Inverse folding.
């Protein structure tokens, strides 16, 4: 019962943080909303007993990706002044979001979910993920790393051009 309550509490934190990300007019505080959402999702992984995914979610997404976002924002020189939404737009967006949250939770609570089968021993462990990464997904993993390096180099090149 406590785990279910924690699960829904972290889900609500992720939802509210996502709303903060979407609706905040300033860039840096909005990115903090993204960090809150990523940490809450990492905690949900921890509650589901996937510690590796929890650590990767928090360290990789909430840490490294947010550092990259802040770096790109600062290097591009974005202004911290955004277009202010009217009070009616803000209230309407929050009301629609809350209605969606309640209708979604009602559908989930009334649905007849089948019982989950017990996973194999070692499923989702660091060893199993590492073996799959090295055996089956080595080439896609290396291609992804090359794409990420190219994206980082491209962002540095674009920021240098905009300063001239």
């Amino acid at each position: 019962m406590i785990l279910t309550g924690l699960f829904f509490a972290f889900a609500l934190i992720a939802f509210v943080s996502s709303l903060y990300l979407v609706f905040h007019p300033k860039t840096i505080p909005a990115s903090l909303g993204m960090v809150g959402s990523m940490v809450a999702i990492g905690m949900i992984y921890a509650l589901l007993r996937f510690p590796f995914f929890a650590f990767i979610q928090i360290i990789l997404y909430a840490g490294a990706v947010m550092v990259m976002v802040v770096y790109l924002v600062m290097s591009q020189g974005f202004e911290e002044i955004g277009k202010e939404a009217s009070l009616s737009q803000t209230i309407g967006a929050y009301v629609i979001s809350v209605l969606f949250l309640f209708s979604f939770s009602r559908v989930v609570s009334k649905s007849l979910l089948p019982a989950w089968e017990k996973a194999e021993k070692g499923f989702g462990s660091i060893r199993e993920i590492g073996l799959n990464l090295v055996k089956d997904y080595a080439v896609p993993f290396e291609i992804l790393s090359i794409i990420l390096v190219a994206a980082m180099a491209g962002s540095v090149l674009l920021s240098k051009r905009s300063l001239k």
About this structure: The radius of gyration is 20 Å.
